Protein backbone atom coordinates (compact mmCIF):
# COMPACT_ATOMS: atom_id res chain seq x y z
CA UNK A 1 0.00 0.00 0.00
CA UNK A 2 1.23 3.57 -0.62
CA UNK A 3 0.89 4.60 3.04
CA UNK A 4 4.01 4.05 5.16
CA UNK A 5 5.84 5.59 8.10
CA UNK A 6 8.48 7.24 5.91
CA UNK A 7 5.94 9.07 3.78
CA UNK A 8 2.57 9.71 5.41
CA UNK A 9 -0.02 10.80 2.84
CA UNK A 10 -3.01 12.78 4.07
CA UNK A 11 -6.42 11.27 3.36
CA UNK A 12 -7.10 14.01 0.79
CA UNK A 13 -4.55 12.44 -1.58
CA UNK A 14 -4.20 8.94 -0.16
CA UNK A 15 -7.47 7.57 -1.50
CA UNK A 16 -6.62 8.78 -5.00
CA UNK A 17 -3.78 6.26 -5.18
CA UNK A 18 -4.30 3.39 -7.69
CA UNK A 19 -4.51 0.73 -4.97
CA UNK A 20 -7.44 2.45 -3.25
CA UNK A 21 -9.17 3.25 -6.51
CA UNK A 22 -9.04 -0.45 -7.37
CA UNK A 23 -10.56 -1.34 -3.97
CA UNK A 24 -13.40 1.12 -4.49
CA UNK A 25 -14.13 -0.18 -7.98
CA UNK A 26 -14.18 -3.83 -6.82
CA UNK A 27 -16.43 -2.97 -3.89
CA UNK A 28 -18.89 -1.26 -6.18
CA UNK A 29 -18.92 -4.03 -8.79
CA UNK A 30 -18.79 -7.09 -6.54
CA UNK A 31 -20.70 -6.14 -3.40
CA UNK A 32 -22.94 -3.08 -3.76
CA UNK A 33 -25.21 -4.35 -6.56
CA UNK A 34 -26.38 -0.82 -7.35
CA UNK A 35 -28.92 0.13 -9.97
CA UNK A 36 -27.33 1.10 -13.30
CA UNK A 37 -25.60 4.48 -13.30
CA UNK A 38 -28.03 5.81 -15.91
CA UNK A 39 -31.01 4.97 -13.70
CA UNK A 40 -29.38 6.57 -10.67
CA UNK A 41 -28.72 9.73 -12.68
CA UNK A 42 -32.32 9.76 -13.90
CA UNK A 43 -33.74 9.57 -10.35
CA UNK A 44 -31.22 12.11 -9.07
CA UNK A 45 -32.26 14.57 -11.75
CA UNK A 46 -35.94 13.98 -10.98
CA UNK A 47 -35.37 14.88 -7.32
CA UNK A 48 -34.27 18.32 -8.52
CA UNK A 49 -37.57 18.99 -10.26
CA UNK A 50 -40.61 21.04 -9.29
CA UNK A 51 -42.69 17.87 -9.38
CA UNK A 52 -40.49 16.27 -6.74
CA UNK A 53 -40.46 19.46 -4.65
CA UNK A 54 -44.24 19.31 -4.40
CA UNK A 55 -44.08 15.72 -3.20
CA UNK A 56 -41.25 16.60 -0.83
CA UNK A 57 -43.17 19.43 0.80
CA UNK A 58 -46.28 17.25 1.11
CA UNK A 59 -44.62 14.72 3.42
CA UNK A 60 -45.74 14.76 7.06
CA UNK A 61 -44.45 11.71 8.92
CA UNK A 62 -40.77 11.88 8.03
CA UNK A 63 -37.95 14.31 8.79
CA UNK A 64 -34.78 14.21 6.69
CA UNK A 65 -31.70 15.90 8.16
CA UNK A 66 -33.30 18.40 10.55
CA UNK A 67 -31.44 21.64 11.23
CA UNK A 68 -31.48 21.19 14.99
CA UNK A 69 -30.04 19.07 17.80
CA UNK A 70 -31.65 17.53 20.88
CA UNK A 71 -32.51 19.09 24.24
CA UNK A 72 -29.64 17.69 26.36
CA UNK A 73 -27.09 19.42 24.12
CA UNK A 74 -28.56 22.78 25.17
CA UNK A 75 -28.53 21.68 28.82
CA UNK A 76 -24.82 20.81 28.60
CA UNK A 77 -24.18 24.27 27.10
CA UNK A 78 -25.86 25.86 30.13
CA UNK A 79 -23.94 23.83 32.68
CA UNK A 80 -20.66 24.88 31.10
CA UNK A 81 -21.67 28.50 31.66
CA UNK A 82 -21.58 28.31 35.47
CA UNK A 83 -18.54 28.48 37.73
CA UNK A 84 -17.02 25.12 38.67
CA UNK A 85 -20.15 23.33 37.52
CA UNK A 86 -20.09 19.87 35.97
CA UNK A 87 -22.84 18.72 33.63
CA UNK A 88 -24.31 15.36 34.67
CA UNK A 89 -26.56 13.75 32.06
CA UNK A 90 -28.81 10.99 33.33
CA UNK A 91 -28.68 8.59 30.41
CA UNK A 92 -26.34 6.46 28.36
CA UNK A 93 -22.64 7.03 27.74
CA UNK A 94 -23.14 7.18 23.98
CA UNK A 95 -25.43 10.20 24.21
CA UNK A 96 -23.00 12.10 26.39
CA UNK A 97 -20.10 11.29 24.07
CA UNK A 98 -22.07 13.04 21.33
CA UNK A 99 -22.57 16.20 23.40
CA UNK A 100 -18.92 16.37 24.41
CA UNK A 101 -17.63 15.78 20.89
CA UNK A 102 -20.10 18.21 19.33
CA UNK A 103 -18.92 21.12 21.47
CA UNK A 104 -15.27 20.09 21.39
CA UNK A 105 -15.22 19.93 17.60
CA UNK A 106 -16.89 23.33 17.28
CA UNK A 107 -14.94 25.24 19.94
CA UNK A 108 -11.71 23.22 19.62
CA UNK A 109 -11.66 22.93 23.42
CA UNK A 110 -12.37 20.00 25.77
CA UNK A 111 -15.93 19.94 27.07
CA UNK A 112 -16.46 18.29 30.44
CA UNK A 113 -19.64 16.27 30.96
CA UNK A 114 -20.38 13.03 32.79
CA UNK A 115 -23.04 10.36 32.45
CA UNK A 116 -24.98 8.09 34.77
CA UNK A 117 -24.10 5.32 32.29
CA UNK A 118 -27.57 3.82 32.00
CA UNK A 119 -27.72 0.50 30.16
CA UNK A 120 -30.39 -2.14 29.47
CA UNK A 121 -30.99 -3.04 33.11
CA UNK A 122 -31.57 0.60 34.02
CA UNK A 123 -34.00 0.90 31.13
CA UNK A 124 -36.05 -1.90 32.70
CA UNK A 125 -35.69 -1.23 36.42
CA UNK A 126 -35.01 2.52 36.45
CA UNK A 127 -31.81 4.50 36.85
CA UNK A 128 -31.83 5.28 40.58
CA UNK A 129 -28.74 3.20 41.35
CA UNK A 130 -26.94 4.78 38.41
CA UNK A 131 -27.77 8.22 39.82
CA UNK A 132 -26.58 7.30 43.33
CA UNK A 133 -23.25 5.91 42.10
CA UNK A 134 -22.80 8.53 39.39
CA UNK A 135 -23.24 11.54 41.65
CA UNK A 136 -20.83 10.03 44.19
CA UNK A 137 -18.19 9.44 41.53
CA UNK A 138 -18.67 12.91 40.03
CA UNK A 139 -18.39 14.64 43.40
CA UNK A 140 -15.31 12.72 44.54
CA UNK A 141 -13.36 12.51 41.28
CA UNK A 142 -13.89 15.92 39.71
CA UNK A 143 -14.44 18.16 42.74
CA UNK A 144 -17.11 20.46 41.27
CA UNK A 145 -18.88 23.11 43.34
CA UNK A 146 -22.17 22.36 41.58
CA UNK A 147 -23.55 19.49 39.50
CA UNK A 148 -26.22 20.33 36.92
CA UNK A 149 -28.37 17.31 36.04
CA UNK A 150 -30.31 16.80 32.81
CA UNK A 151 -31.82 13.77 31.06
CA UNK A 152 -31.78 11.86 27.79
CA UNK A 153 -34.50 9.90 26.00
CA UNK A 154 -33.97 6.72 28.01
CA UNK A 155 -34.51 8.32 31.40
CA UNK A 156 -37.55 10.22 30.17
CA UNK A 157 -39.24 7.25 28.50
CA UNK A 158 -39.11 5.21 31.72
CA UNK A 159 -40.13 8.24 33.79
CA UNK A 160 -37.21 8.69 36.18
CA UNK A 161 -37.93 11.45 38.73
CA UNK A 162 -34.81 13.62 39.03
CA UNK A 163 -35.97 15.48 42.13
CA UNK A 164 -36.64 12.24 44.02
CA UNK A 165 -33.47 10.57 42.73
CA UNK A 166 -31.25 13.48 43.79
CA UNK A 167 -32.80 13.59 47.27
CA UNK A 168 -32.36 9.83 47.63
CA UNK A 169 -28.73 10.13 46.52
CA UNK A 170 -28.12 12.71 49.24
CA UNK A 171 -29.80 10.46 51.82
CA UNK A 172 -27.51 7.63 50.71
CA UNK A 173 -24.46 9.86 51.22
CA UNK A 174 -23.43 10.20 47.58
CA UNK A 175 -23.08 13.95 48.02
CA UNK A 176 -23.51 16.27 51.00
CA UNK A 177 -27.08 17.27 51.81
CA UNK A 178 -26.34 20.96 51.24
CA UNK A 179 -24.55 20.43 47.91
CA UNK A 180 -26.20 22.24 44.98
CA UNK A 181 -27.63 19.93 42.32
CA UNK A 182 -30.02 21.89 40.09
CA UNK A 183 -31.82 19.76 37.53
CA UNK A 184 -34.00 19.89 34.45
CA UNK A 185 -35.95 17.29 32.53
CA UNK A 186 -34.75 17.54 28.92
CA UNK A 187 -36.44 14.80 26.85
CA UNK A 188 -34.55 14.57 23.58
CA UNK A 189 -37.55 13.36 21.57
CA UNK A 190 -39.34 16.72 21.76
CA UNK A 191 -38.15 20.29 21.26
CA UNK A 192 -34.55 20.98 20.32
CA UNK A 193 -31.27 22.18 21.79
CA UNK A 194 -32.73 25.65 22.39
CA UNK A 195 -35.56 24.07 24.41
CA UNK A 196 -32.97 22.22 26.47
CA UNK A 197 -31.09 25.48 27.04
CA UNK A 198 -34.28 27.08 28.31
CA UNK A 199 -35.19 24.19 30.61
CA UNK A 200 -31.69 23.93 32.08
CA UNK A 201 -31.28 27.67 32.70
CA UNK A 202 -34.73 27.84 34.27
CA UNK A 203 -33.84 24.86 36.47
CA UNK A 204 -30.76 26.63 37.85
CA UNK A 205 -32.62 29.88 38.54
CA UNK A 206 -35.48 28.04 40.24
CA UNK A 207 -33.04 26.02 42.33
CA UNK A 208 -31.46 29.09 43.89
CA UNK A 209 -34.43 31.46 43.91
CA UNK A 210 -37.24 29.08 44.93
CA UNK A 211 -35.66 27.26 47.84
CA UNK A 212 -33.43 24.53 46.44
CA UNK A 213 -36.15 21.97 45.71
CA UNK A 214 -37.90 22.62 49.02
CA UNK A 215 -34.81 22.18 51.20
CA UNK A 216 -34.28 25.89 51.98
CA UNK A 217 -36.40 29.05 52.27
CA UNK A 218 -37.22 30.76 48.98
CA UNK A 219 -35.36 34.01 48.36
CA UNK A 220 -37.20 37.30 48.52
CA UNK A 221 -36.51 39.84 45.80
CA UNK A 222 -35.06 43.16 46.91
CA UNK A 223 -34.92 45.25 43.76
CA UNK A 224 -31.67 47.00 42.88
CA UNK A 225 -30.34 48.83 39.82
CA UNK A 226 -28.42 45.97 38.23
CA UNK A 227 -29.19 44.51 34.80
CA UNK A 228 -29.14 40.81 33.93
CA UNK A 229 -27.98 39.54 30.56
CA UNK A 230 -28.88 36.18 28.96
CA UNK A 231 -27.33 35.38 25.59
CA UNK A 232 -29.12 32.12 24.78
CA UNK A 233 -27.66 29.16 22.92
CA UNK A 234 -24.86 30.75 20.90
CA UNK A 235 -22.12 29.07 18.84
CA UNK A 236 -20.21 32.38 18.72
CA UNK A 237 -20.33 32.84 22.50
CA UNK A 238 -16.56 33.30 22.92
CA UNK A 239 -16.46 36.37 20.70
CA UNK A 240 -20.00 37.57 21.37
CA UNK A 241 -19.79 37.55 25.16
CA UNK A 242 -16.58 39.58 25.10
CA UNK A 243 -18.26 42.17 22.87
CA UNK A 244 -21.43 42.36 24.97
CA UNK A 245 -19.44 42.80 28.19
CA UNK A 246 -17.47 45.58 26.51
CA UNK A 247 -20.69 47.40 25.64
CA UNK A 248 -22.02 47.03 29.19
CA UNK A 249 -18.71 48.35 30.51
CA UNK A 250 -18.80 51.35 28.17
CA UNK A 251 -22.10 52.31 29.79
CA UNK A 252 -20.61 51.78 33.25
CA UNK A 253 -23.41 49.30 33.90
CA UNK A 254 -23.85 47.11 36.95
CA UNK A 255 -24.71 43.79 35.31
CA UNK A 256 -25.00 40.06 35.87
CA UNK A 257 -24.34 37.58 33.06
CA UNK A 258 -26.46 34.47 33.51
CA UNK A 259 -24.72 31.52 31.82
CA UNK A 260 -21.31 32.53 30.52
CA UNK A 261 -19.26 29.67 28.98
CA UNK A 262 -17.03 32.05 27.02
CA UNK A 263 -13.94 31.28 29.12
CA UNK A 264 -14.69 27.57 29.43
CA UNK A 265 -14.31 27.30 25.66
CA UNK A 266 -11.36 29.68 25.38
CA UNK A 267 -8.73 28.47 27.84
CA UNK A 268 -5.04 29.24 27.27
CA UNK A 269 -2.35 26.66 26.59
CA UNK A 270 0.15 27.31 29.37
CA UNK A 271 0.80 23.87 30.83
CA UNK A 272 -2.25 23.82 33.13
CA UNK A 273 -5.42 21.88 32.33
CA UNK A 274 -8.52 23.78 33.41
CA UNK A 275 -11.59 21.63 33.78
CA UNK A 276 -13.44 24.67 35.10
CA UNK A 277 -12.73 28.19 33.86
CA UNK A 278 -14.80 31.32 34.35
CA UNK A 279 -18.57 31.04 34.33
CA UNK A 280 -21.36 32.61 36.34
CA UNK A 281 -20.92 32.17 40.09
CA UNK A 282 -23.60 31.10 42.54
CA UNK A 283 -23.37 34.50 44.18
CA UNK A 284 -24.16 36.16 40.86
CA UNK A 285 -27.18 33.89 40.32
CA UNK A 286 -28.53 34.78 43.77
CA UNK A 287 -27.90 38.49 43.21
CA UNK A 288 -29.59 38.37 39.80
CA UNK A 289 -33.00 37.90 41.45
CA UNK A 290 -32.81 41.53 42.58
CA UNK A 291 -32.05 43.02 39.15
CA UNK A 292 -34.39 45.68 37.84
CA UNK A 293 -34.42 44.11 34.38
CA UNK A 294 -33.09 41.26 32.26
CA UNK A 295 -32.02 41.63 28.63
CA UNK A 296 -32.51 38.40 26.69
CA UNK A 297 -30.86 38.10 23.28
CA UNK A 298 -32.67 34.97 22.10
CA UNK A 299 -36.41 34.85 22.65
CA UNK A 300 -36.81 31.29 21.39
CA UNK A 301 -33.95 29.99 23.55
CA UNK A 302 -35.56 31.36 26.68
CA UNK A 303 -39.36 31.22 26.42
CA UNK A 304 -40.00 29.64 29.84
CA UNK A 305 -37.20 31.60 31.49
CA UNK A 306 -38.63 34.90 30.19
CA UNK A 307 -42.02 34.07 31.69
CA UNK A 308 -40.41 33.13 35.01
CA UNK A 309 -38.39 36.35 35.18
CA UNK A 310 -41.50 38.43 34.59
CA UNK A 311 -43.31 36.54 37.33
CA UNK A 312 -40.47 37.53 39.67
CA UNK A 313 -41.20 41.21 38.97
CA UNK A 314 -38.37 42.01 36.57
CA UNK A 315 -38.75 43.92 33.33
CA UNK A 316 -37.61 41.67 30.50
CA UNK A 317 -36.28 43.14 27.26
CA UNK A 318 -36.54 40.46 24.58
CA UNK A 319 -34.43 40.69 21.42
CA UNK A 320 -33.68 38.27 18.60
CA UNK A 321 -29.93 37.80 18.14
CA UNK A 322 -29.07 41.43 17.34
CA UNK A 323 -27.00 41.40 14.15
CA UNK A 324 -26.58 44.59 12.15
CA UNK A 325 -27.56 48.20 12.66
CA UNK A 326 -31.20 48.01 13.73
CA UNK A 327 -30.68 44.96 15.93
CA UNK A 328 -27.76 46.53 17.78
CA UNK A 329 -29.60 49.86 17.99
CA UNK A 330 -32.44 48.14 19.84
CA UNK A 331 -30.01 46.67 22.37
CA UNK A 332 -28.04 49.89 22.89
CA UNK A 333 -31.14 52.05 23.27
CA UNK A 334 -32.70 49.59 25.73
CA UNK A 335 -29.51 49.62 27.78
CA UNK A 336 -29.40 53.42 27.71
CA UNK A 337 -32.98 53.62 28.93
CA UNK A 338 -32.57 51.05 31.70
CA UNK A 339 -29.37 52.57 33.05
CA UNK A 340 -30.42 56.17 32.50
CA UNK A 341 -27.27 57.19 30.64
CA UNK A 342 -26.73 58.44 27.08
CA UNK A 343 -25.19 56.18 24.47
CA UNK A 344 -21.37 56.38 24.78
CA UNK A 345 -19.64 58.36 22.05
CA UNK A 346 -17.48 55.35 21.12
CA UNK A 347 -20.56 53.28 20.29
CA UNK A 348 -21.97 56.09 18.18
CA UNK A 349 -18.69 56.20 16.29
CA UNK A 350 -18.67 52.42 15.80
CA UNK A 351 -22.20 52.61 14.45
CA UNK A 352 -21.13 55.22 11.91
CA UNK A 353 -18.12 53.13 10.92
CA UNK A 354 -20.39 50.12 10.35
CA UNK A 355 -22.77 52.16 8.19
CA UNK A 356 -19.78 53.45 6.22
CA UNK A 357 -18.52 49.90 5.64
CA UNK A 358 -21.98 48.83 4.52
CA UNK A 359 -22.13 51.73 2.07
CA UNK A 360 -18.65 50.86 0.73
CA UNK A 361 -19.75 47.32 -0.10
CA UNK A 362 -23.44 47.67 -0.76
CA UNK A 363 -23.10 47.54 -4.53
CA UNK A 364 -21.64 44.04 -4.36
CA UNK A 365 -24.30 42.52 -2.10
CA UNK A 366 -27.33 44.47 -3.31
CA UNK A 367 -29.89 42.18 -4.94
CA UNK A 368 -28.05 38.97 -4.11
CA UNK A 369 -30.36 36.15 -3.06
CA UNK A 370 -29.66 34.08 0.05
CA UNK A 371 -31.03 30.86 1.50
CA UNK A 372 -30.33 30.18 5.17
CA UNK A 373 -31.18 27.83 7.97
CA UNK A 374 -30.57 27.67 11.71
CA UNK A 375 -32.12 28.57 15.06
CA UNK A 376 -35.12 30.92 15.03
CA UNK A 377 -33.45 33.89 16.75
CA UNK A 378 -30.36 33.81 14.57
CA UNK A 379 -32.49 33.61 11.44
CA UNK A 380 -34.35 36.74 12.57
CA UNK A 381 -31.09 38.60 13.19
CA UNK A 382 -29.54 37.59 9.87
CA UNK A 383 -32.73 38.34 7.96
CA UNK A 384 -32.83 41.86 9.32
CA UNK A 385 -29.17 42.48 8.48
CA UNK A 386 -29.44 41.13 4.93
CA UNK A 387 -32.40 43.42 4.29
CA UNK A 388 -30.34 46.35 5.59
CA UNK A 389 -27.70 45.46 3.01
CA UNK A 390 -30.22 45.42 0.18
CA UNK A 391 -29.88 41.65 -0.19
CA UNK A 392 -32.80 39.26 -0.45
CA UNK A 393 -33.17 36.47 2.17
CA UNK A 394 -35.21 34.38 -0.25
CA UNK A 395 -35.52 31.19 1.83
CA UNK A 396 -35.37 31.36 5.65
CA UNK A 397 -35.73 27.95 7.28
CA UNK A 398 -35.82 26.87 10.93
CA UNK A 399 -36.62 23.27 11.81
CA UNK A 400 -37.29 24.39 15.39
CA UNK A 401 -39.19 27.49 14.27
CA UNK A 402 -42.89 27.95 15.00
CA UNK A 403 -45.69 29.58 13.04
CA UNK A 404 -45.37 32.60 15.36
CA UNK A 405 -41.69 32.81 14.45
CA UNK A 406 -42.54 32.64 10.76
CA UNK A 407 -45.00 35.51 11.17
CA UNK A 408 -42.25 37.56 12.83
CA UNK A 409 -39.89 36.94 9.91
CA UNK A 410 -42.67 37.86 7.51
CA UNK A 411 -43.03 41.24 9.23
CA UNK A 412 -39.38 41.93 8.43
CA UNK A 413 -40.02 40.98 4.80
CA UNK A 414 -43.05 43.24 4.63
CA UNK A 415 -41.14 46.21 6.06
CA UNK A 416 -38.50 46.17 3.32
CA UNK A 417 -38.72 46.41 -0.48
CA UNK A 418 -36.07 43.67 -0.60
CA UNK A 419 -38.36 41.25 1.25
CA UNK A 420 -40.85 40.94 -1.58
CA UNK A 421 -41.00 37.34 -2.74
CA UNK A 422 -38.96 36.06 0.22
CA UNK A 423 -40.44 33.15 2.15
CA UNK A 424 -40.01 31.55 5.57
CA UNK A 425 -40.17 27.85 6.31
CA UNK A 426 -40.88 26.77 9.91
CA UNK A 427 -40.66 23.09 10.87
CA UNK A 428 -38.86 22.20 7.63
CA UNK A 429 -35.57 20.34 7.19
CA UNK A 430 -32.54 20.39 4.94
CA UNK A 431 -34.09 18.00 2.41
CA UNK A 432 -36.83 20.57 1.91
CA UNK A 433 -34.14 23.21 1.48
CA UNK A 434 -32.43 21.08 -1.16
CA UNK A 435 -35.60 21.15 -3.25
CA UNK A 436 -35.80 24.91 -2.89
CA UNK A 437 -32.18 25.39 -3.94
CA UNK A 438 -32.74 23.34 -7.09
CA UNK A 439 -36.08 24.83 -8.12
CA UNK A 440 -35.80 28.41 -6.81
CA UNK A 441 -32.06 29.13 -7.05
CA UNK A 442 -30.17 31.61 -4.89
CA UNK A 443 -26.68 33.09 -4.99
CA UNK A 444 -25.48 32.04 -1.52
CA UNK A 445 -26.34 29.68 1.32
CA UNK A 446 -25.89 30.52 5.04
CA UNK A 447 -25.74 27.60 7.44
CA UNK A 448 -23.49 25.26 9.40
CA UNK A 449 -20.92 22.67 8.35
CA UNK A 450 -23.60 20.23 7.22
CA UNK A 451 -24.53 22.72 4.51
CA UNK A 452 -21.42 21.71 2.56
CA UNK A 453 -23.39 18.71 1.24
CA UNK A 454 -26.01 21.11 -0.10
CA UNK A 455 -23.21 23.22 -1.55
CA UNK A 456 -21.75 20.23 -3.40
CA UNK A 457 -25.14 19.04 -4.58
CA UNK A 458 -26.52 22.37 -5.76
CA UNK A 459 -23.42 24.46 -6.45
CA UNK A 460 -24.57 27.23 -4.09
CA UNK A 461 -21.59 28.68 -2.14
CA UNK A 462 -21.87 28.19 1.63
CA UNK A 463 -21.21 30.86 4.27
CA UNK A 464 -20.63 29.16 7.62
CA UNK A 465 -22.40 31.21 10.30
CA UNK A 466 -24.51 28.65 12.19
CA UNK A 467 -23.58 26.18 14.95
CA UNK A 468 -21.93 23.73 14.56
CA UNK A 469 -18.93 24.66 12.43
CA UNK A 470 -16.52 21.71 12.35
CA UNK A 471 -14.61 22.23 9.11
CA UNK A 472 -13.37 25.78 9.73
CA UNK A 473 -11.41 27.00 12.74
CA UNK A 474 -11.86 29.89 15.17
CA UNK A 475 -14.99 31.53 13.80
CA UNK A 476 -16.43 31.34 17.32
CA UNK A 477 -13.67 33.61 18.64
CA UNK A 478 -15.09 36.62 16.77
CA UNK A 479 -18.37 38.41 17.55
CA UNK A 480 -21.36 38.65 15.26
CA UNK A 481 -23.41 40.76 17.74
CA UNK A 482 -22.98 44.50 18.18
CA UNK A 483 -21.67 46.98 15.63
CA UNK A 484 -18.25 45.32 15.54
CA UNK A 485 -19.92 41.93 15.19
CA UNK A 486 -21.98 43.17 12.27
CA UNK A 487 -18.79 44.32 10.58
CA UNK A 488 -17.33 40.83 11.00
CA UNK A 489 -20.53 39.36 9.53
CA UNK A 490 -20.38 41.78 6.60
CA UNK A 491 -16.80 40.70 5.85
CA UNK A 492 -17.85 37.03 5.87
CA UNK A 493 -20.58 37.80 3.31
CA UNK A 494 -18.13 39.75 1.16
CA UNK A 495 -15.34 37.17 1.36
CA UNK A 496 -17.60 34.45 -0.02
CA UNK A 497 -18.92 36.80 -2.71
CA UNK A 498 -15.42 37.69 -3.92
CA UNK A 499 -14.17 34.09 -3.68
CA UNK A 500 -17.07 33.02 -5.86
CA UNK A 501 -16.47 35.86 -8.30
CA UNK A 502 -12.78 34.98 -8.57
CA UNK A 503 -13.59 31.29 -9.09
CA UNK A 504 -15.89 32.25 -11.96
CA UNK A 505 -13.23 34.40 -13.66
CA UNK A 506 -10.07 32.39 -13.23
CA UNK A 507 -9.60 30.41 -16.47
CA UNK A 508 -6.74 31.99 -18.50
CA UNK A 509 -7.77 33.26 -21.89
CA UNK A 510 -11.39 32.31 -21.34
CA UNK A 511 -12.97 33.93 -18.28
CA UNK A 512 -10.10 35.92 -16.80
CA UNK A 513 -11.21 39.16 -18.44
CA UNK A 514 -12.72 40.05 -15.04
CA UNK A 515 -10.12 38.51 -12.73
CA UNK A 516 -9.53 41.94 -11.23
CA UNK A 517 -6.97 43.00 -8.64
CA UNK A 518 -9.28 45.73 -7.36
CA UNK A 519 -12.83 44.88 -6.41
Written account of the structure:
With 519 residues, the chain is of the alpha/beta class. 48% of the residues lie in helices and 10% in strands. It has 21 helices and twelve strands. It has helices at 11-14, 18-32, 37-46, 50-58, 71-79, 93-107, 120-125, 128-142, 153-158, 162-171, 193-209, 237-251, 282-288, 303-311, 325-339, 345-365, 376-388, 403-414, 430-439, 451-458, 482-503; strands at 85-90, 113-115, 146-151, 227-230, 255-257, 293-296, 315-318, 369-373, 392-398, 423-426, 444-447, 462-464. The strands form three sheets. It has a five-stranded parallel beta sheet, sandwiched between helices. A four-stranded parallel beta sheet has the order 5-4-6-7, with helices on both faces. It has a three-stranded parallel beta sheet with strand order 2-1-3, sandwiched between helices. Helix 20 links the parallel strand 11 and strand 12 (462-464). Helix 16 packs parallel to helix 21 and helix 17 packs parallel to helix 18. It is globular. The protein starts with 10 loop residues before the first helix and ends in a 16-residue tail after the last helix. The model has no long low-confidence stretch (mean pLDDT 96). This molybdenum-iron protein is part of the nitrogenase complex that catalyzes the key enzymatic reactions in nitrogen fixation. Keywords: ATP-binding, Iron, Iron-sulfur, Metal-binding, Nitrogen fixation, Nucleotide-binding, Oxidoreductase. Residues 1-56 form the Nitrogenase molybdenum-iron protein beta chain N-terminal domain.
Amino acid sequence: MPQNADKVIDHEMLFREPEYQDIFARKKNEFEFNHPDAKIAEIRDWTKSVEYKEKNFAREALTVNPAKACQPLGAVFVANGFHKTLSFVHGSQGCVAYYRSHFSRHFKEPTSCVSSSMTEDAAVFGGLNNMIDGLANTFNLYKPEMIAVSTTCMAEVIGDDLNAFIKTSKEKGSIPAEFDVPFAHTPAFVGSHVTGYDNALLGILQHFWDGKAGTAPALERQADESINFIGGFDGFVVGNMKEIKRIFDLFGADYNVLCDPSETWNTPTDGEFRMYEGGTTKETVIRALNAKATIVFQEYSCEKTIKYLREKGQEVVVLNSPIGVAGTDAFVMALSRLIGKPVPALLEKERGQLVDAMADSQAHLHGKRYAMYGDPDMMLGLTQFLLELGAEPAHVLATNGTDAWAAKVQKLFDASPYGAGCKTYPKRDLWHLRSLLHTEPVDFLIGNTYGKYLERDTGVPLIRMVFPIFDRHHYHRYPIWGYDGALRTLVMFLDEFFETLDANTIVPGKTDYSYDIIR
